[in-house]
Amino acid sequence: MGPDIEGESDRARLERLGRERPELFRSLWAEIGFCFSVAMSQVLTEYFVSGFNVVLPTVVSSLDIPTASQTWPANAFSLVVSSFLLIFGRLADMYGGFPVYVAGVSWLFLWSIVAGFAQNELMLDFCRGLQGLGPAAYLPSGLMLLGSIYRPGPRKNLIFSIYGACAPLGFFIGIFFAGVAAEFASWRWYFFIGAILTGITAVIAYLTIPSDISARRNMGIKMDVPGSILSSTGLILLVFAITDSSHAPKGWSTPYIYSLFVVGVLLLAAAVYVEGWISDMPLLPFDMFKVPYMKPLTVALLFSYGSLGVYLLYSTLYMTDIMGGSPMQLVAWFTPMALGGCIISITGGFFLHQIPGTFLVLIAGLGWIIAALLFALMPLGANYWAFTFPAMICATVAIDVTFTVTNIFITTSMPLKRQGLAGALINQILQLGIAVFLGLADIVAAETRSGGLRRSYQNVFWFEVAMAGTAFALLLFVKIDKAESKATADEVPETEN
């Protein structure tokens, strides 16, 4: 637990340790380099997700991608990320967060360069899918490093707040460079700029992240091979079927859609059986959900992050197709969301140990509802300041508060040997929520397109209101205390004894 000071009470000791710089860092600059490296994981992921939506029309035109296949260059990335997070989370627990993180960022760097030279749709889809293995590796290992290095307390709150702030920052950087590339250069520069950012991150990460390889080797953690194969394959087939159903020739009546959906469900059911009753070291241990309020929180986050995916894509489409915004206008219109997210996340880090987490996530839940409601009710030719601006503010409150508070709660609740799985679980919920509910939103849009493009978009926003409302109802059954300085999950049994 750290060095003792004569006459210091246990409470004062925990409070001091919760504010001190971890002993792993020899100086403040070493800590800053580490935090920059890990926080960039959020920037890079959002860059390659949000920015690609802006540059996609230019890519479609350049590579002559047919209408039925236009969503796949975007979906392939998220599909691979969501399907392999748990596997890489286990690898991080086995071999250390340092090697898995650096390898993931380096892999993304390589395939970002190759994607910039894509000559056709198949090559681009292939590169986007392989790009997804990078975030699948560095997202859980990055959260694992943060969760294992920082103790519960104000310092951890601040670092996690900065980490959360980098999500809207990455979103803004993504749409900015995508807009610049689409209007003034070539879409290929979107990938090349992303590769430059990724390369810088890889070098700094290699130099500043403390190695935890030797410490992890002694924990005796093993890979659950059957569970890994069943869960990843099942997720790929399930998400593919949902995502592609709105573009298939006969929708859900298309044979390959319902066949893959059924096979995916059966594989996931088999994975649950193997994980729960056969494997002696399951990929996702069920006792992780025995943490108080973890079950309703997990489901609520699934709906909340689903709302995030729907909001980001369809607000972009609405402002482009209905409001007539150019790529650079979208950058301007999204600025309050990015700037507000940075301000809220960083300043919030100074108050998380003073305000109950329950109150904060409920405020965030209302933000999810109001952001979608404003777009659903927006009249044609509506004033930006009356509808779009407050929607952006509510969205950024919802995203940043939810992400920061719940990440601190989940990582603090898990012992050291499960920090990789904790990071994988957090990002699995995020990516799976976006992929599944975005696929369902596409179905809503496709089935109501006969009423006009604007009407179909509004129906999607009403669908998002329902999702956000469900998340809010579930959050009423969740209790999260203040993020104060306290013993870690590993120290709690020792303290009780």
TrEMBL record:
Transmembrane feature ranges: 72-91, 98-118, 130-150, 162-181, 187-209, 221-243, 255-278, 299-318, 330-352, 359-378, 384-409, 421-440, 460-478
Subcellular location: Membrane
Recorded GO CC terms: membrane
Domain Major facilitator superfamily (MFS) profile: 34-483
Membrane topology: Multi-pass membrane protein
Pfam family of the protein (one): MFS_1
A single GO molecular function term of this UniProt record: transmembrane transporter activity
Alphabetic keyword roster: Membrane, Transmembrane, Transmembrane helix
Highest rank taxon of the organism: Eukaryota
PANTHER family reported in the protein's UniProt record: MAJOR FACILITATOR SUPERFAMILY MULTIDRUG TRANSPORTER MFSC, MULTIDRUG TRANSPORTER, PUTATIVE (AFU_ORTHOLOGUE AFUA_4G13820)-RELATED
Protein name per the record: MFS general substrate transporter
Organism: Aulographum hederae CBS 113979
